[in-house]
Amino acid sequence: MQKPCIICVAITGSLPRKEMNPAVPISVAEQIESTQEAFEAGATICHAHVRNDDESPSSDPNKFALLKQGLEKHCPGMIIQFSTGGRSGAGQERGGMLPLSPDMASLTVGSNNFPNRVYENPPDLVDFLAAEMKKYEIKPEVEAFDLSHIHQAAAMRADGRLNSPLYVQFVMGVKNAMPADRDVFDYYIKTMERLLPDSEWCAAGIGRHQLEVNEWCIAAGGHARTGLEDNIRLDKHALAPSNAALVKRVTELCACYERPVATPQQARQILGLSQKQLSD
To answer: Can you give the pTM of this predicted structure?
Structure first.
């Protein structure tokens, strides 16, 4: 049997509501409900941001705590992954929720351009976030917006700033950053096999590239990320109706390629999460 495919659902993101699909869940209650639907459809990782009452991105640990509590109740065994991305705060504030000890947290190990700004991840901040994740026994998901980020992750593993095995996500299709290019994707995999052969990887395709990149991942033996954070529209004619609908499309691709969809227990085993976390 082929390796089970872990499906991550990125439920909300941090863009202004007016720029995103109206189906995007905003409040903590909406996020819990949307994630539960996606979990029941086959997602085993929830990648989460939180928002203020005015819908702007938030780094409020209390909101993250409420979200974590709700997900643990309604999505038993699901892997909870908090975002430490730059829209949620400035500097070390971006790691303010890490003492809550989620299963995972995103970690971008270098800077790159975004559509209208520079996504700044200076070395001292990267080292701080990585150290906090180690302190609270959180598995990082390394977000690679550039080939250099894979090399940096390998260097951080080699010197002990990150523990083995790593989990690396290729982010493809952000305007002004790495495009969703098949040759680049294939070279990313080749680089992972050379530098981090014991590690797992997935990829996120942004916007219209989401399903395309999902298929590349599933066919190549990796894992897949979907969700309304990454996808404003499925195509020029139709809005994605929900996170669960996007997860269902990934499960259908898995069936086409005879890849079983990972259960929460299988996902935890593949990612090297502890047996204590598995039983919680």
So the answer is: 0.95
